[in-house]
Amino acid sequence: MSHVRCLRGIASGVEYPSDVPMNLDPVDGRPVEMVLDIERLAAEQPDAQWYDPDRRDMWRFGALMALDAGDPADALNIVSLGEGGTPLLDYSRHPVARDGGIRLSLKDEGRAHAGFGANPTQSFKDRGMAMVVAHARRLGLKRLAVPTQGNAGDSLTRYALAAGLSVVVAMPDDTPTPILGNVAAAAFRHPGQVILELIGPTIREAAALLKQKYVAQGWFSVATFQEPGWRIEGKKSLGLELAEPARGETRWLLPDAVIYPTGGGTGVLGMWKAWSELEALGLIDSRRPRMICVQSATMEPLVRAFDSGASDTTPLPGAGTLAVGLNVPGGVGHFRVLEIIRASAGAAVAVAEADIAAELTRLWRDTRWWIGPEGAACLAAMPQLLDRGLIRRGEHVVAVNTGSAEKYLPALRHLLD
Q1: What are the pLDDT digits (tens) for 44-81?
Q2: Is the pLDDT of residue 317 over 90?
Q3: Residue 11 C-alpha from the chain's centroid
């Protein structure tokens, strides 16, 4: 059975029952997270008996997840479409990595690779939405609402349909055509079950529309951080995969730095939580990777807050970005992202749009990998990271590609020649 003990306000510390649907913490309007009973897990399944490395999706972490795929009662609520289990690609030949003596790996959450798991909508959002839909089923929720820059809406639509749930998706009308087309096609084929609302220019306006028009009518919001820790638990699997033993080995080991494209920041909280739980289980020690959050210079709320020493971001309009997933002017969980960055001796850094585009072209010519613009932004940040000592010679550094370039065509076509 699930080892979730309770929900807890991330800032307030107030605990709530885990089986009650809730959004933000009523004490302070900030996110809540799920708290696992790690002591019980360790006692009931010692020596990481919960871990099933032969399984190729994110559910191989068993009872360390918020639902245990190995437990028949939990498994009834899980709708797995193969999410997670993505490869860590060696990219030490990257020019900056090669010249700087960096062992660079690319965690590819986009296009499928033979012999690995695969996110069905070619985006890391599938990890979070698989968990969202599973917990919605567990609690008997039938109607879900999400504001999105694109990929989260595409993902939730896929999982909601597979689970027999209804969904309303609100996104900007300039969302990349493949993503918008997927949701629009689902809305056409499943009228009433899938509803698409177009509003922008960013996710903030989409969220406001849903709150006024749908949440007030009983739809349950699963916006970033506004569900009760479910998306954090799904994204946690990314951190577990970065730590898990390589095939044929037994040692859990973390990289020295993680370069992560950061919009809302759910993945940052998820990875950090994963590592805290692994430490509590005695599988790793207290050392953590430096968390380096990358944003576009046209939309950099975390960078402004980090550089100024602020404890939270101040939402301001921006010019938009080729890396659509980074087009987030502010976030209710950004205060915690900043805490994690600082606790890890990391940084929030910005890259120019021209550098994202140039890196995307260079990467495509070099590898023919379908890396999205958010992943390209991480690699474009490497020169400044090396200059600032945020990545160092001899270290193992992981850059995360959160989605496939295919989802951004035709806007990227001119860069992939």
Answers
A1: 999 999 999 999 999 999 999 999 999 999 999 999 99
A2: no
A3: 20
The torsion defined by the Cα of 312, 344, 60 and 232, in degrees rounded to 10, comes to -10
Residue with tokens 């929720």: 141
Closest CA to 66 of 77, 56, 81: 77
Q: Per residue in 80-137, pLDDT tens?
A: 999 999 999 999 999 999 999 999 999 999 999 999 999 999 999 999 999 999 999 9
1: pLDDT confidence band, cut at 50, 70 and 90? low
Helix, strand, coil tally for the chain in percent (to 5): 40, 15, 45
CB atoms within 10 A of CB 138: 20
Both tokens of residue 2?
A: 């699930």
Minimal CA–CA distance to 225: which of 22, 14, 36, 2? 22
Burial-class residue 164 by CB neighbours within 10 Å (0-12, 13-18, 19+): exposed
Which tokens in the block code for residue 293? 């959050």
- Alpha carbon distance, N-terminus to C-terminus of the chain: 51
Enumerate the H helices of 256-403 as residue ranges. 266-280, 301-308, 334-343, 353-367, 373-380, 382-387
d(CA 348, CA 297): 11
Distance, in Å, from the CA atom of 150 to the CA atom of 182, rounded to the nearest integer, reads 10
Give the tokens for residue 134: 């599973």
Backbone angles phi, psi at 124, to 5 degrees: -65, -15
Instruction: Tell me the H-state helices in 281-333.
Output: 301-308
